[in-house]
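Human: My hope is that you can spare some time for a protein that puzzles me. I am handing you a single protein, as its sequence and its fold in token form. Could you go through the record with me and say what the backbone is doing? Take your time, and here it is.
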Amino acid sequence: MTPRMSYTPLDLPVRPRRLRRAPWLRALVAETTLRAEDLIWPLFVQEGEGLVTPVDGLPGVNRLSIDALVDAAREAAALGIPAIALFPVTPPEKKTDDGREALNADNLVCRAIRAVKQAVPEIGIVADVALDPYTTHGHDGVLGADGDVANDTTVAVLCKQAVTLAQAGCDIVAPSDMMDGRVGEIRTALDDAGHEQIAILSYAAKYASAFYGPFRAAVGSKNNLGKADKRTYQMNPANRIEAVREASLDLAEGADMLMVKPATLYLDIISDVAQASDVPVFAYHVSGEYAMLKAAVAAGMLEEKSATLETLLAIKRAGASAILTYAARDVAQWLKE
């Protein structure tokens, strides 16, 4: 690291405010910038046609049928948002203990990927790799005899799911399950299936957070959680050093990008992982964080535009290259104004 310049100041007044006196000057010397190109828009897809169903607890967020999803993808592309992240709302009758619907090449998310790619080929698609949308118990993997998620059994299924999503046409697979060793196995499975160009965005530091509730309600897994505990595979919010270790393991296994989730409560983790790795680090501004902002705005405690932009700017300042946020469309529109 280049040493800092040291100097003895002259006997003159120090005037840092000189660089803050006008909007153009503040913009010129800004150390961090937020652009529409830094955003990924998470979208929920549901069965049906012509459906836009509001999600309780997430104002401005909807479950979309595939035709409405295509419209949203077109809007994202027009606003300069480079990618969307898809999360399926699997019908209850298609959920099983082993989550086998995740491997169906004609399942909801695969049909959605194909439809978006046909209509809006320029938009990037991030596909979630985890079993919680497909299991009756709401966990991210297959349960073992002890009621906990069986790591290696789950990884074998996740590899097949990743290949299924790649074959449907996604650009990035994002394993969000937090199983040990899954990144390397998924990389091998993708390469063996001829999908060497599909990137892996690993949820390297996904914490067992209290701020996922609205998301689980949106995908229909909140009320399905069984006797297993997500704290046996998601990280302890008390731990900081562990995040760098997890990131290092995923890098060694071939991750192309790393994710920290949540974001605003974990700015120190974003900073640590960004400084320790040589690949892009993304952050997920999760449903509970988004919902808190919306609630404060609704109560008249915050001004929405300035508070949201400041929040996302702080996430970037911490070291995030890109941000997944439900506010992506609004933010992109504000940035164009």
User: Anything to note?
Assistant: The chain has a mean pLDDT of 95.
